[in-house]
Amino acid sequence: MTADGKCKIGPNAVPIFGRERYDFFSSSLPNAQDLTEIVSLQSKLFWENHFGFRKLAFKEFMNGLQGRMSMISAAQTLVDLPTCAFDGFSVPGIRAQLVDLNKMSLEMDFVMEGDASCTHLLNAVSPAWTCSIPLASYLVDKANL
Questions:
Q1: 1 lies in a domain?
Q2: Among 7, 13, 40, 128, who pairs with 124 as Cys (CB 3.0-4.6 Å)?
Q3: DSSP for the chain?
Q4: Tens digits of per-residue pLDDT, 22-39?
Q5: Could you tell me if residue 102 is inside a domain?
Q6: Mean pLDDT of all residues in the chain?
Q7: Same domain, 123 and 61
Q8: Could you give the dihedral angle defined by the CA atoms of residues 115, 117, 123 and 125, in that order, rounded to the nearest 10 degrees?
């Protein structure tokens, strides 16, 4: 619950067939190269079922079919949401989950890559914002900056 009494729920996992596409039902067509890459990877993950991807895909597909109200209903079973002010849904964002293509596994933590001239922090989802100062300190120490 936020300081002003609103409830926020999420995130959920919805496959979107294109980079920078915030809406599954967007009127614009996805980039053909993006679409090919994404469908190819998703198909491989589904077929080989690494990290239980098939079950996850079915679950999220069914959640999508049931709509946003099912998301609210599921959240209400966890907390006392009727006391929260619900005034609709905000615009979704993109939260990419990093997949290690060599191991065919989901990365569940931060990944740091780079060389002598640059450092990249990958898979920095919302906990990165929560612990941004300690994370920055850790990255500086690791990168010997």
A1: yes
A2: 128
A3: --TTSB----------SSTT---TT-SSPPPHHHHHHHHHHHHHHHHHTGGGHHHHHHHHHHHHHH-HHHHHHHHHTTS-GGGSB----PPP------EETTTTEE--S-EEEE-SS-EEEES--THHHHTHHHHHHHHHHHHT-
A4: 666 666 777 888 888 888
A5: no
A6: 75
A7: no
A8: 150
Query: 83 with 125, same domain?
Result: no
pTM: 0.58
pLDDT tens for each residue of 90-103: 666 666 678 888 88
Residue 53 CB: number of other CB atoms within 10 A? 19
Cα separation of 51 and 31, whole Å? Answer: 28
Rounded distance, CA 91 to CA 89, Å? 7
